[in-house]
Amino acid sequence: MQYLEFEKPLSEIEGKAEELRAMARQNDTMDVEKEAVALDRKAETMLRDLYKGLTAWQKTQVARHPERPHCKDYIEALFTEYTPLAGDRNFADDHAVMGGIARFHDQPVVVIGHEKGHDTKSRIERNFGMARPEGYRKAIRLMDMADRFGLPVITLIDTPGAYPGKGAEERGQSEAIARSTMKCLEIGVPVLATVIGEGGSGGAVAFAAGNRVAMLEHSVYSVISPEGCASILWKDAEKMREAADALRLTAQDLQKLGVIDRIIQEPLGGAQRGRAETIDAVGKAIATMLKELAGQDAKTLVKDRRQKFLNMGSKSLAA
To answer: Across the strands, what pairs with 110?
Structure first.
């Protein structure tokens, strides 16, 4: 288990418990289980206390945890008959965006998501989940196909933001993001978006302009990263904690503002401590959101989506 900065006291206690058990495995005569169990209880209490009142910056750290389940994990666990579709029919295939046709609870759907990768090799291949223009154009192609065949679109969002490289800008990064966002808003099928980790900037909005938007409890969704915001406003990236608070990027704040519709609870200690439970909870939330939209015609779905985004910001955090 990889521990975050604020979890260091917890790592010491859990480490001591594991040391005791390791010593007992090497020496059958040692009876340390009582002491180890006492440390386990202490660790659980500390974990509960730590996650009871996470700050916005701490939630950002949890959302970025490398051991959280990623898009690929959700697709493999929740969808059957998944057939990946590649390329934007224009320039290339962007491995930061994965998508294709599949079945969810035996219902044909199109699923699209950002994939960060799980080790050094796959993270480089996936560009750490930062999509280039061809990734957004691939998503547009898949959404067009979904619209043509009447298939709901399910998106899984986990990106620091769109890739800011020179080549991406030359190939029309902002235009691709805008068109992907517009495509989400105009297709006549249900669009369900779930932020499973980071929802960074326009790179996230391009997949998140849906009829229903959900977030995992410790995920974040913002116009800019806390570090980027601090660099612009204070000329100091070290003020990321103050920036995180000001951005209102947590699921709890965004639900109050009406930006998202649903918060999906995570296991104690975050999704990284209960991957299977988290994936199951996301699957149940998607099923519920699909049921809410069942039977609505194309005109109603488009109108619902448009009104949803027009209403954003009308709710007050103080409400």
So the answer is: 101, 153
